Amino acid sequence: MTERLAWMHERTDGKHSKGTKIIPFSLHHIDELLHDIGLPLSAFTRFKQWLMPPNPSDYETVTRQLLARYGRPLNKVAD
Length: 79
Description:
Helix content: 55-70%
Number of strands: 0
Order of helices and strands: HHHH
Structural class: mainly alpha
Distance between the termini: 40 Å
Strand content: under 5%
Number of helices: 4
Radius of gyration: 15 Å
């Protein structure tokens, strides 16, 4: 956690909660979570998100992988 805060502080001059600067850090956090559960986005997609506005369709692959893994959407209760 200390390393993460230092990383954010270095790149935002200590203003990591102001304006649009929060977006790249939010995407970085989402990327880490997806990696932790074994559903990482491609390197190209992650790179593209740092340069352009996020595109929700980038996460369609995650949805397909979850369906393949669990056979149903996660928000549906199994019968």
